[in-house]
Amino acid sequence: xxxxxxxxxxxxxxxxxxxxxxxxAYAALKTLPWFDRLRRGRLSRALRFVEAxxxxxxxxxxxxxxxxxxxGKLTAEERHxxxxxxxxxxxxxxxxxxxxxxxxxxxxxxxxxxxxxxxxIKTGR
Length: 125
What we know:
By secondary structure, this protein is mostly helical. It has two domains: 1-31, no CATH class; 42-123, no CATH class. It is built from six helices and no strands. The longest helix has 36 residues, at 33-68. The chain starts with a helix and ends with a helix.
C-alpha cells in the first residue's frame, strides 16, 4: 500500500497544520501589491509577443490575400489559418526569449487575445 500526502495529512495533525499555514501564507502572498505588479508585468510581456506576431502575420499573409481579392475579404478557412499562424508565431517569438507563452497566459486566453488584436487592426486602433 502506498502512503500519499492525503494519508499523511489525515494521520498527522501537525501535517494538517503545516499545510493550512502554507496555504494561508500563499493566499496572503497573492494579495500583496508587488505580486500583482509581477503578474501584470509578465502578462504585459507575453502580450507584446502576441501583438508582434499578429502584426507580422497581418503584414506578411493577410495583406497579400486581401490585395489579391476583388472584394478584399478572406475566406473563413484563410482567417482560421491566419489566426493559427499568429498563434504559432507568438509561441515561437516568446520561446526565443525563454517564455512559455501557453503556460504564461493559457491557450484559451491566447486565442482571445489574438482575436482582440485582430479586431484592433481591422478598426485601425
